[in-house]
Amino acid sequence: MSGRRHAPIALSCGEPAGVGPELAVAAAQALDGALPFFWIGDPRHLPEGSRFAEISTPAEAHHVASGTLPVLRHDFAAPATAGQPDLANARGVIDVIARAVALVQSGEASAICTAPIHKKVLKDGANFAYPGHTEFLAHLGGVERVVMMLACPELRVVPVTIHIALKDVPTAFTPALLEETIRITAMDLKRFWGIERPRIAIAGLNPHAGEGGAMGHEELDWMIPLIERLGAEGFDLKGPMPPDTMFHAKARAGYDVALCAYHDQALIPIKTIDFSGGVNVTLGLPFIRTSPDHGTAFDIAGKGLADPTSLIAALNMAAEMAAKGDT
């Protein structure tokens, strides 16, 4: 990341018919030039009357008037109607993501912040071959395994297994997966947050962390041995912890990140603590990627109801990570 501290952040447009375009404009207005970023997309997709300025290179984002959205133009096949996705624009969405990655890899951008996409639209319109945004970014970055972290000022959480049925979690939640997640999480908390030895809390899979085997044996059979082995390597690990007692304020003060066995175990606490301001961060990539923690919201797109809080938080977090990564 050396030399990239002052490069602006690339904001991909996401699904043009979703809330992404209007949130980009709102974020530019709210940040008022305090954080240099630029939006990659088709100016036709921005709300009517938006204050924006086309740029020809990312560096020009530094010179756009405060409150104005810098736009690196990327022409799409069709205009966009809020709330009504057009399959003709699917290829453009994919190409913008790839363009953003190329810009950060070249050093012209310091990080990527991605607006929400709609996976079914991309699959139906452009034969998108990836389960989601994150897997495509991993492919572009040349890595096989990445980790999803949700973060807000009060809490960081990592779901070790993500979008799978609850009945499949005990099979998917393996020693190898947990170990790999611990290593990637610790590496990036050191690299991008400057935490030399991250304190990692690990939630038990079962209620009460198994309660000595009365409510499940995974904790005794392999979680405790794994935690002890990695602790001997120098990792600062706590757990397995009872999931129902590890997210109150006093408990949170004892760790830097909580690793959870499954999706809702991680996302319920962070969305309860900060529903609007949570940020999705992808760990394990060779570049910085953040995203607002919400979807395309077709139902409210174009109605002036979308809240830019999460996008602003995602842009700010990307900038903070880039600064730490430079040091």
From TrEMBL:
Catalytic activity, reaction form: 4-(phosphooxy)-L-threonine + NAD(+) = 3-amino-2-oxopropyl phosphate + CO2 + NADH
Pfam family, one: PdxA
Alphabetical list of SUPFAM superfamilies matching this protein: Isocitrate/Isopropylmalate dehydrogenase-like
Biological process annotations from GO: pyridoxal phosphate biosynthetic process; pyridoxine biosynthetic process
Domain of life: Bacteria
Keyword set includes Nucleotide-binding: no
Chain sites annotated for binding substrate: H133, T134, K271, N280, R289
Enzyme Commission numbers on file: 1.1.1.262
Annotated InterPro entries: PdxA, PdxA_fam
Cofactor(s) of this protein: Zn(2+); Mg(2+); Co(2+)
Keyword NAD among record annotations: yes
GO CC annotation terms, alphabetical: cytoplasm
Subcellular location: Cytoplasm
Example GO molecular function: cobalt ion binding
Keyword annotations of the record: Cobalt, Cytoplasm, Magnesium, Metal-binding, NAD, NADP, Oxidoreductase, Pyridoxine biosynthesis, Zinc
Quaternary structure and interacting proteins, as annotated: Homodimer.
Further remark: The active site is located at the dimer interface.
Role: Catalyzes the NAD(P)-dependent oxidation of 4-(phosphooxy)-L-threonine (HTP) into 2-amino-3-oxo-4-(phosphooxy)butyric acid which spontaneously decarboxylates to form 3-amino-2-oxopropyl phosphate (AHAP).
Family: Belongs to the PdxA family.
The name this protein goes by in its record: 4-hydroxythreonine-4-phosphate dehydrogenase
